[in-house]
Amino acid sequence: MKFFRLLTPFLLTIVAVLCVAPAAWAFCGFYVAKADTKLYNKASQVVIARDDEHTVLTMANDFQGEVKDFAIVVPVPTVLQKEQVRVTEPKIIERLDAFSAPRLVEYFDSDPCAVTDSVNLPATAPRSRAVSQEAEKTSDRSLGVTVEARFNVGEYDIVILSAKESGGLETWLKRNGYKIPRGAKQLLKPYIRSSMKFFVAKVNLDKFEKSGYQFLRPLQISYQSPKFMLPIRLGMINATTEQDLIVYILSPQGQAEITNYRTVKIPSNTNIPLFVKDEFGEFYKSMFQTVYTKEDRKVGFLEYAWDMSSCDPCSADPLTQDELKQAGVFWLDDNSGSNLPASPSFRRPSPRSNVFISRLHVRYTRDKFPEDLIFQQTANSESFQGRYVLQHPFQGELKCQAGREYKQSLPKRFEQEAQTLAKLTNWNIQDIRNKMKLSVANLTYSWWENLLSWVRLY
C-alpha cells in the first residue's frame, strides 16, 4: 500500500507513497549573492501563468524516496483532459528561482577628494541573461466517486476524479493503494462542496525507467476557471513544522497579490555590514523569520516584482521566450498559444509579449493560514526586489578637507549598519560590532586611527 505524505502546499500532495545617496540608488549595484530556495530544507515551488480566466500551473516535486512510492492528489476546478496535462523540465523552475531571488549587491565609495563635474553614480552590474473495469465502475459509483478521465502523460499515470462526499473519496483512494493521512477526510469536504475535481497522479515505473530521467519532472496543468486560487490546507495534514511556499506568478499585467491575507514587501534597500557577504544565507533566513514573526505569522511576502524582459542587478539571465513558454506563458507573440491544449474550453488569447513576474513567499502553519490562498492580478507594474547593500569605504589616501570629513563620518555609518542588521535579524548587537571590527581591520593602515576611535565610542 502506498503511503502518502504532503509534498507541496498547493497540492493535496499525499505521498507515500514539492543613485548617489542610498535612497537614490534605485536598483543598481554589483550583484554578489542571492537567497534562493536552496536556503530552505523544504521550499515548495509553484509557477502560475495567468491571463484572464486562463491558468497554466506548474508544480515542482520535492519528493525524496523511491519513485514507486510517489503520488499526488490535487484539487482542480475543472475536469482535465490529456491535452491539458504535460511534464516539463525542473530547469525552468530553477531559472525562475534564480532570476527572482532576493539579492546582495555592493558599491565602492569613490575618492571624496577627487574633483568631478558630474554625479558619480554607482556602476550597475552588466545584464547577464486488477479488477475488471466494469466492476471498478460499479464500485466507484457506490462510493459516490466518478472517474472522469484516465490517461498517461510522460512518466505519470493520471486519473481525474469527482466525488459526492469525502468518505467515499477517502475509501476510493485507500482501495486504490493510497493511505490517507489522518485528518484528510475533513479537509476534503470543502473542495467537494465547491464541486472541485481531483487530479490524481502516480509514477508509471516502466515508463519512468525507459525515460532515462533520474528525478521526477514537474507536472503542468492548464485550465480555464474564474477561480485564481491555490489550495494549501490539505498540504498541512502531516506538517509538523512551518511550511515554506514560493509562488512565481507570471502575468501580462503587473504585480499579483494575495487577497485573503495581507501581502507585504520584504524589507529591502538597506545597508548592512561588509561581513554579511560571507553570511548572506544566514542573514536572509534570520531576517525573514524576524519580519514573519513581527507580522504575526499570517502574511504573504513579496520578494520580487519585475518585468521579465530585464533585471537590475541581474542575479540570473532573464528567461528566453522559449523558456517562458515552458513555464506556461501562453500569450507570447511568437506562435501565440501554441503550447496551449487543444481544448474547446481553453481559448487562445490575443497575441501579446509582456510578462511580469511576482515572487510571493508564504510561510504558513495550520492556525495562521486556515484558508486557501486567493490571488488577484493588478495593473501595478512598479519594480521591486529584496535587495541588500554592502558599501565599501574608500581605501586610498585622504589629504583634502572633504576626505577628512568623509573619514570622520565612517564610525557613525558603521554603527548605523550594525543597528540596522540587529533590527532586521535580532542578532546580538555586540556580536555584530565585533565582526565588523574584524572586517574593517582588513582595510589599509590609514584606517586604524579611525577604527580605534570607533572602538572607543562603544
Task: Throw out a few tags for this protein.
disordered C terminus, single chain, 458 residues, 25% helix, alpha+beta, 4-stranded mixed sheet, 9-stranded mixed sheet
Please render the helix and strand layout as text.
Elements: E1 2-3, E2 30-34, E3 43-51, E4 54-59, E5 71-76, E6 85-87, H1 90-100, E7 103-108, H2 133-142, E8 145-153, E9 156-163, H3 166-175, E10 178-179, H4 184-193, E11 197-203, H5 205-211, E12 219-224, E13 229-230, E14 243-251, E15 256-258, E16 262-265, E17 270-271, H6 280-294, E18 299-307, H7 321-326, E19 356-364, E20 373-377, E21 384-385, E22 387-392, H8 401-425, H9 429-440, H10 448-457
Parallel strand pairs: 1-10, 3-14, 7-22, 16-18, 17-22
Antiparallel strand pairs: 2-7, 3-4, 4-12, 5-11, 6-12, 8-9, 9-11, 13-20, 14-19, 15-20, 18-19, 18-21
Radius of gyration: 26 Å
Round the mean pLDDT to the nearest integer and report it.
81
The chain-level structural class is alpha+beta
Uncertain stretches: 1-26, 116-131, 335-352, 443-458
What is the count of distinct domains? Answer: 1
Global geometry: elongated
DSSP strand (E) fraction?
25-35%
- What is the helix fraction of residues, given as a range? 25-40%
Largest sheet geometry: 9 strands, mixed
Q: What's the β-strand tally?
A: 22
Terminus-to-terminus distance: 64 Å
Count of separate DSSP helical elements: 10
In short:
The chain is of the alpha+beta class.
Overview of the molecule:
This protein is of the alpha+beta class. It has one domain (2-18, 34-261, 298-392). The protein has 10 helices and 22 strands. The protein has helices spanning 90-100, 133-142, 166-175, 184-193, 205-211, 280-294, 321-326, 401-425, 429-440, 448-457; strands at 2-3, 30-34, 43-51, 54-59, 71-76, 85-87, 103-108, 145-153, 156-163, 178-179, 197-203, 219-224, 229-230, 243-251, 256-258, 262-265, 270-271, 299-307, 356-364, 373-377, 384-385, 387-392. The strands form 5 sheets. Strands 3, 4, 6, 12, 14, 16, 18, 19 and 21 form a 9-stranded mixed sheet that branches. A 4-stranded mixed sheet has the order 2-7-22-17. Helix 3 crosses helix 4 (184-193), helix 8 packs antiparallel against helix 9 and helix 8 crosses helix 10 (448-457). The longest helix has 25 residues, at 401-425. The chain is elongated. Mean pLDDT is 81; it is low at 1-26, 116-131, 335-352 and 443-458.
